[in-house]
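1st attempt posting a full record on here, be nice pls
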Amino acid sequence: MRWKLSKSGCFQVKSFHQALGGCGNVSLPWKAIWKTMAPLKRDAETVDHLLIHCPVAWELWSVVFSWFGLRWAMSRNVMELLIAWNGARVGKRRKCAWAMIPLSLMWTIWRERNWTCFEGIEKPLFRIKRFVVSSLYSWDKGDCNPAIDQFLDWLELFFVK
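the predicted structure (as tokens):
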């Protein structure tokens, strides 16, 4: 196979963009694609890195483990973490809150990462930790009460400033 839009016959992004930009009076909005605030992709920016291994994510996971009095060897990837999470024994009273934590943490990390990358807003870590607790409160629709209320009241002790 040969790429007809380049002299070498090999695909080049530049030749593709030139072909797209040459369609009538419409020019390709290349700045919207290549000049965004999003960082360039780096090898370290995998889902596993962003959600469990980067320093901020690791700090959030460590805080959660301390809430439960656990020492935890972090899994290599998100799938292994979720499998281990379901197998953990944290006691009947805390089980409902435990089940909500991975989604709460991952959603928070993803949300904060987007705010930092696309809006240039970086929150202090203590506010991110408070957001995790408040999201647990708001996500509970009475399924875990009163156990989650007691548990989350206890967690509030971690955030008194």
